[in-house]
Amino acid sequence: MRLPFLRALRTRLLPCLILSVLFVPAKSTLCASASEALPEAAPLAQGQDNGLHNTVLPLLEKQPSGKVVMVLDGDTLRLADRRTIRLACIDAPDRSFSSPMYYANQELREDNFQPAKGSVHIEQRSYRGMEYRYASEAYEELKKKALKEPVQLAAPKREKDPHGRLVADVILKDGTSLSSYLVANGLAYVVINPAYPKEYTDALVALQNKAIEKKCGFWDMLFSLDAARQPYIGNKATSLFYSSHDIRGQQIKPRLRVYFGTLMDAFMAGFAPASARDFWPPAK
């Protein structure tokens, strides 16, 4: 009596099992979405409707919203009202441009400086316009995610960088923080900005460490370099690190100096490179 029942059961279940195997969703090429990278963070200002809550990072004060009409780089956007936005607390690999980009913050962007006429540092000219590896990937992903999208800016205050670009996190309508999205997927690294709450930057560093552990994006490439096994010197006051042959590292006051045995140690401690050209390879 059991045999017909078992045959019927097999006849009905077998096609279902085959279909379930054939239609398993494909795994995303990205390591994580911003919303699933960390559990929801507690707001910085409980009970007040003066900030923007997103699913990963603590509250930041709302700034004027806009619509993205252009993506310039892996960390830079332009809005319809002509404001240019530099994504807060991150740095993506640089793209090449037809003309060099100049930065007044020598600590963070010394490799983009044009030497003064007669300067002994003429060798820096060779780095102008160089495109770093993974610059195109960061740029294309940001463009796919944000171009033509309405966005809400979020920042503790209205702050501009030396180029007049507004520094802010940019939040999509689904609540995704672009700064956290790029970090979570290994397309940008964290650069501590003291104007931002510690809770915010700590959350970004936690995202970065998860991306490192999963070897997302450029992390696998970076840590396979010979430079990844060299020591680095960090400055506790700026959260920047230097290669052992950079004289600026030797000039850090002893009480502010911290030593890292490898490149991974420096990044996982939340420090950012003072000069990425020391180790970052050019695009192929």
Describe what you observe in this structure.
The protein has 284 residues and is α+β, with helices and mostly antiparallel strands. Helices cover 28% and strands 19% of the residues. The protein contains nine helices and twelve strands. Strand 2 and strand 3 form a beta hairpin. The radius of gyration is 23 Å and the shape is globular. Mean pLDDT is 78; it is low at 13-27, 34-55 and 98-127.
| Biggest sheet strand line-up | 2-3-4-7-6
**How many beta-strand runs?**
12
Query: Helical amount among residues, as a percent range?
Result: 25-40%
**What number is the mean pLDDT?**
78
- Classify the secondary structure makeup into a structural class: alpha+beta
Over all CA atoms, what is the radius of gyration? 23 Å
N- to C-terminal distance: 69 Å
Poorly predicted segments: 13-27, 34-55, 98-127
Name the shape in a single word: globular
Question: Helix and strand string, N-terminal first?
Answer: HHEEEEEHHEEHEHHEEHEHE
The proportion of strand residues reads 15-25%
Count of individual helical segments: 9
The biggest beta sheet is recorded as:
5 strands, mixed, barrel
Short description:
The protein starts with a helix and ends in an 11-residue tail after the last strand.
Identify the notable features of this structure and list them briefly.
five-stranded mixed β-barrel, single chain, 12 strands, 9 helices, globular, alpha+beta, 19% strand, four-stranded mixed sheet, 284 residues
Task: Set out the fold topology.
Elements: H1 2-22, H2 34-37, E1 51-52, E2 60-73, E3 76-79, E4 84-87, E5 90-91, H3 106-109, H4 135-146, E6 150-154, E7 166-172, H5 178-184, E8 189-190, H6 198-214, H7 219-222, E9 232-235, E10 240-243, H8 247-250, E11 257-260, H9 263-268, E12 272-273
Helix pairs in contact: 5-6
